Amino acid sequence: MIFIRAISRSNTVLNRIIRNAVPAIRSRFINSNFGFRYCSASLAAMVSTDMEVEALRKLVMEKQSVVEKQGDAVRALKASKAAKEEIDRAVNYLKELKIDLQSSSRELQSKLSDDGAALSKEAFRQAVNNTLERRLFYVPSFKIYRGVAGLYDYGPPGCAVKANVIAFWRQHFVLEENMLEVDCPCVTPEVVLKASGHVDKFTDLMVKDEKTGMCYRADHLLKDYCKEKLEKDPLLPVDKVNELKQVLALLDELSAEALGAKIKEYGITAPDTKNPLSDPYPFNLMFSTSIGPSGLSPGYMRPETAQGIFVNFKDLYYYNGNKLPFAAAQIGQAFRNEISPRQGLLRVREFTLAEIEHFVNPDDKSHPKFKNVSNLEFLIYSREEQMAVKPPVKIRLGDAVAKGTINNETLGYFIGRTYLFLTNLGIDKERLRFRQHLQNEMAHYAADCWDAEIECSYGWIECVGLADRSAYDLKAHTEKSGVPLVAHETYSEPREVEKLVITPAKREMGMAFKKNQKMIVEALEAMNEEEAMDLKARLESDGKASFEVCTLGQTVTLTKDMVSISKEIKKEHQRVFTPSVIEPSFGIGRIIYCLFEHCFYTRASKAGDEQFNVFSFPPLVAPIKCTVFPLVQNEKYERTAQIISKSLTTAGISHKIDMTGTSIGKRYARTDELGVPFAITVDFEASVTIRERDSKDQIRVSVEEVASVIKEVTEGQSTWADILWRYPTHTSTSADE
């Protein structure tokens, strides 16, 4: 009976947890005029909270333990040849426990899969994507030829949303920060990408089906396996649950060997055929090409836009009056030959990037405007929290920089500006977080890196990368091109500084090394202070020393008379240095897709027999700002509609005029599905109504004022609430039909 009491106590605790959790779940729906839509909670929380699932999983494990102990008790009774009545009682009790365990297991399985939930992640995603394709926001490219994975075409409303997002990005960053905008070619010579490291290191780990040769991205297979086990296996022990969560948290840190070991340990096979998989190996993601007809000048389609800015640094620095800091920006197409594109616009082979390279003195990364964003508070997922498998925490940006969680003010400033950009677009601030890269994710030269991640039905998606890349890029292109990409700082008074002086004896070296002399001299002059003083000590000790020349790929022997190494005090009037760069990089397509999901909801018709789709785009990004509807087909109303259309065009407001005889309710529904925020209904010659999409509130204004009112609210000079105070409201039953 001890076991039964333990189970009863567990059930009581579980029920209390569920009772407390249910109101929170209900509060995550809006179920009035707006039908069902996603709010600030995570998508998974719409079906069941993590608290519920974990409590159920714990209960199942407790009951499993009880069953095992009772099974041991039955076996002990049989071994001791106890009385038949006692054995029968124990066996019957064991059967009851097993039935109870099966019941709890089914309940947990139901919570994990939740096929009956009223808008699961998959159903919601399908509803969004069906609407997007049907209304031609975007469609698969080359559709009549069955399409190509990872390539999509934007239709008219999609193009408009994308153009509006880019226009706001340009206003928010380029104009407000006085950035220098450039536009560079997509085709890039191999030498440029060799210098940047892309030719050798721009790879993902791939595995192949050993029988069919089908290719898969290795980390995706491991991620899918872990998620499926967590979601669908109710009897996973707690330590196994924690292990899988740890793998997911540290997935980007796994080396090829570690990734391959996990795939073998978990018995992961090819998804399509269940055949065994090869060991993971790197696959370069760049599209290769040749420049010119000879084929002798190899090139690539650029995988990012940043390199075009770096190679133009010298001219941009001169254009800026030889002053730091300054930022350059570029918006354009980039190309990556993804191993297995999926998830619609989130992982594609051609996409739009908007990138900023902010060049700054490496000794001073403060920012004069940091105070403007320091009080912003949002979710920050630091490296420490990830390693401890803890959730992100909401923290003030100024505190994150002051504590050193974020490396410097300039990086912090761009994180804050990115937060404002995304939330002003319409991204839900409760489903936006900034995640710090783990140590193994970061390049050795990077000072700090963060991703702005947005939650959608696919999980948390990296949409913006923000990195302090130190001086790596400019130094790499300086070394490869021989052109110094440096900045100058002029001192108000000369300064005495200790300088390392390396003087090769060219005559002696020429006699010893002949045609290799130049490369050896360049290698000597490129030494840092530590390397130079070590070489000097060895030369003075032994009279000779070995010296590795990377460009020759060999080690040479130098004698004491071939090079002089010393430190001298010199007066300097200026300092020459390579600037550091802070790089925010925005994936426009990913941001737009997350925006689509965050703005989508359905609402019931007035009769309740029909569901209408709505995109609640802010006016800033809406593809069309307003529509113009004559209430009925009437010459006077149509003439008034044309007058309004002309005034809207003059004011620069995108709009659509619909003179069909369809009912006004259906016309409202059609434009709501396109995300049009305002509808103008012509029901008199002198005045008209303006309807707001989400509240369905209407006001009456004169024909002469229509364009100015729409312009005022769509450009953010006033809110709809402000407009409601100034104009009389209008009530119409047809609006809800």
UniProtKB/TrEMBL annotation:
Gene3D superfamilies, alphabetized: 3.30.40.230, 3.30.720.200, Anticodon-binding domain, Bira Bifunctional Protein, Domain 2, S15/NS1, RNA-binding
Subcellular location: Cytoplasm
SMART domains per UniProt: WHEP-TRS
Domain of life according to the entry: Eukaryota
Keywords tagged on the record: Aminoacyl-tRNA synthetase, ATP-binding, Coiled coil, Cytoplasm, Ligase, Nucleotide-binding, Protein biosynthesis, Transferase
All copies of domain WHEP-TRS, residue ranges: 59-115
InterPro entries: aa-tRNA-synt_IIb, aa-tRNA-synth_II, aa-tRNA-synth_II/BPL/LPL, Anticodon-bd, Anticodon-bd_dom_sf, Gly-tRNA_synthase/POLG2, GlyRS-like_core, tRNA-synt_gly
TM stretches of this protein: none
Coiled-coil zones: 80-114
Entry's EC annotation: 6.1.1.14
Any Pfam family the entry gives: HGTP_anticodon
Enzyme class, UniProt record, top EC level: ligase
Sample GO molecular function, one term: transferase activity
One Gene Ontology cellular component: mitochondrion
Catalytic activity line of the entry: tRNA(Gly) + glycine + ATP = glycyl-tRNA(Gly) + AMP + diphosphate
Predominant localisation class: cytoplasm
Residues annotated as domain Aminoacyl-transfer RNA synthetases class-II family profile: 263-619
Gene Ontology terms describing biological process: mitochondrial glycyl-tRNA aminoacylation
NCBIfam families hit by this protein: glyS_dimeric, PRK04173.1
Family the entry assigns: Belongs to the class-II aminoacyl-tRNA synthetase family.
The protein's assembly and partners: Homodimer.
Name of this protein: glycine--tRNA ligase
Organism listed in the record: Araucaria cunninghamii (Hoop pine)
